[in-house]
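User: Hey, quick favor. My workstation is busy. Could you predict this chain's structure for me?
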Amino acid sequence: MKVRLHPDAEKELDQAARWYEGRDAGLGEDLLAEVDRRLGGIAEAPHTWPRWQGTRELDPLIRRVLLRRFPFAIAYQAFDDRVWVLAIAHTSREPFYWASRPDSDGPDALG
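Assistant: No problem, here it is.
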């Protein structure tokens, strides 16, 4: 299944990878590799992960995948033909700051 990232999710991932790379050479690459593995798992079985508790009921649901090594979660929606990643969210950041993204940009906005 095709996985697309909201432009703000791409920015979040890029900023986090640069921050980690600045802390320790190779750590940013490790973050990118872990996110890539998780996105691959989502693409293979998008309905595996649970609804993100506290999100409003949307169709499809907003689901969450936690990273193992880094304090981030991937927020996404699984459609019939694609996965739309709303955020690569730091788990200590303000909850649901990204919640308006599905309404404003939707997966079809990028073509």
